[in-house]
């Protein structure tokens, strides 16, 4: 009933070009739209896995740098693992990000925005909340507006930690791979149905200098909707349920999303 009450104002909005729609608000997949000049975005994502033993919270803040072509952002995480000594909660690793709007402008149907990130080891590796070493990540998001009501987004990338540490203290170089695809359907400019899918090949340290790769596939159906205000503020809540397939069946989780996007200067 609460969800219906929040959605009704957005659903009755007609599909017009004058109504601000929703962009860059996916949960698992990055959309290739950089922040517009003078607009900042604050993104929160909460995930609670099936059984309630694990949960995570992430916060990301995105800023345009000298216009939409360049974007700077940072991301922090709080992670909880109930099985570690009755419960362990703390910071994960910290990410500093730069994205280049390589292709795409207002009215375009194809957008590309490669991202390069520096990953700082702020999480406790002994508790499994961090890598224990400085790392880097490269991700290439591609967005295609197939029709006025349908968009698809593709991601491909990898992360590298030259001297990562396992909870047992072993060191090894790890390379994690990631690919993903999503489809976004607009019921209205301010209400979107979403299906996201991510495949990950993560390296696990099994001894000094030794790793093995595990593959997981996640599929996440969800919905997001926007509330637009005259001040230029756009609030986008969202909810999804992530299904872990195969070896990742224990990673099924409820996702709660909330974004605030607003101008920080005139013009």
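^ structure tokens above, recovered residues below v
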């Amino acid at each position: 009933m609460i969800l219906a009450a929040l959605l009704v104002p957005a659903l009755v909005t007609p599909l017009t070009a004058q109504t601000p729609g929703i962009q860059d608000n996916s949960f698992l997949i990055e959309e290739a739209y950089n922040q517009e000049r003078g607009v900042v975005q604050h993104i929160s994502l909460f995930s609670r896995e099936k059984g309630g033993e694990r949960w995570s919270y992430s916060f990301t803040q995105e800023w345009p740098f000298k216009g939409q072509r360049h974007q700077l952002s940072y991301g922090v995480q709080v992670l909880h693992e109930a099985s570690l000594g009755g419960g362990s909660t703390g910071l994960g690793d910290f990410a500093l990000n730069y994205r280049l709007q390589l292709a795409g402008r207002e009215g375009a149907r194809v957008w590309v925005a490669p991202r390069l990130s520096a990953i700082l080891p702020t999480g406790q590796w002994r508790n499994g909340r961090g890598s224990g070493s400085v790392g880097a990540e490269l991700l290439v998001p591609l967005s295609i507006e197939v029709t006025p009501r349908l968009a698809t987004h593709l991601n491909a990338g990898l992360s590298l930690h030259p001297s990562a540490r396992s909870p047992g203290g072993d060191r090894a170089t790890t390379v994690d791979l990631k690919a993903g695809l999503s489809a976004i359907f607009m019921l209205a400019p301010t209400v979107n149905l979403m299906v996201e899918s991510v495949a990950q090949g993560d390296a696990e340290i099994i001894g000094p200098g030794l790793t093995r790769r595990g593959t997981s596939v996640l599929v996440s159906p969800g919905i997001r909707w926007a509330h637009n205000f005259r001040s230029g503020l756009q609030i986008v809540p969202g909810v999804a349920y992530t299904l872990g397939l195969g070896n990742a069946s224990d990673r099924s989780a409820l996702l709660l999303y909330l974004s605030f996007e607003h101008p920080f200067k005139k013009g």
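Residues 2-11 form the longest helix (10 residues).
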